[in-house]
Amino acid sequence: MANLLIIGAGGVSRVATVKAAQNKDTFTKITLASRTKSKCDEIAKFIKERLNVDIQTAEINADDTEAVVNLIKKTGAEILLNVALPYQNLTLMDACIKTKIHYIDTANYEHPDTPKFEYKLQWEKDDEFKKSGILGLLGSGFDPGVTNVFCAYASQYLFDEIHYIDILDCNAGDHGYAFATNFNPEINLREVSANGRYWKKTANSSSDRVTNWDSDEWVETKPMEIGFKWDYPEIGVKDTYLLYHEELESLSKNIKGLKQIRFFMTFGESYLTHMKCLENVGMLRVDEVEHNGVKIVPIQFLKTLLPDPASLGARTKGKTNIGCVIRGLKDGKEKQIYIYNVCDHEECYAETGAQGVSYTTGVPAMIGSKLVAKGIWSGKGVFNMEEFDAKPFMDELMTQGLAWKIIEMKPGESYKVGEI
Q1: Which candidate among 108, 189, 194, 227 keeps its CA 20 to 30 Å from the CA of 116?
Q2: What is the pLDDT at residue 182?
Q3: Is the Cα dihedral 52, 57, 62, 65 positive or negative?
Q4: What is the per-residue pLDDT across 135-170, written as a single tens digit (0 to 9) for each?
Q5: Which fold has domain 2-138?
Q6: Using CA atoms, how far apart are residues 2 and 198, in angstroms rounded to an integer?
């Protein structure tokens, strides 16, 4: 039915490619391409042995738009799934515009030289996508991605109005290393060490530090300034901190009636201690420094030293819990729910050879591609996940390995059990 080109060969790519092969009725041809072709070949071998599905492989520099254009033409691809680095989103979008094929990614664009990530430059390509008659689906991972769909499903099917959303991301996995990141270290550490932000409809309190970040409704906090202990279903109590995450940018625009939206993530004391030490000695810097006559970027050098996230699968035990606490009105009455997914790292590895953080991103990447391939999600231009009917995606989650649950909560109820 569809000819899919997947660019990137990390843990997320591995999962997305395995899941695409499991859906071979939809994806009749799959090509996996990366700067390091040997990584693609290893994934293709794994899939051939497990599923008896052939995956074509290729070498590609995702920073080179013309090279990507040539690869698209060579493979005849109809959809490009970008699971490479967020720095490469714009060049890959440009390749799709030139070849008139659909584009899907899992995270928004990041500036290589500035620790800031935003949808602005990708949204600005909306007219070009419309002129090319193609669809750009942004953020089809878990967060962003599934969390956006959770919110859309609640808005479309469960509530008349949504007023408050808290997104909570817990990884209770243990990989046994003193310090490692569960996805690209450079991306992860830039994200976590940045100032936090959340969106609210009004900000009249004198204690709110409102910034001018494209809106006067963003409240900025210091890194890890706001935190609490939260009792995650099926996992237990974990230290949880507010930080900025990209889905807030689109959800604050697209969920009507919203008064406040925040994002929280769990971190252990050891992780935060290591990160603070690295920051204090300059290892999280994104600018070039000279070392023995050679220009290096400290955070990129650190990435080389840390364990490859794709190698963590065999070592990681435990579970993830990612979900949304959503409060609003239904039939004139207050309503609150907790909608979430729990994923087991060892089960993910047994199926795909990757740990749960890669799994929870790679599966939604495939689902987004599948809905576009089948024309269930369609349109011309650039879209975020919550702009489509959520139910087809929610149905796919239940059959593709990311089953979700809903807890009906009392309005104002919280699973917060203490301060940090």
Answers
A1: 227
A2: 76
A3: negative
A4: 999 999 999 999 999 999 999 999 999 999 999 999
A5: Rossmann fold (3.40.50)
A6: 39
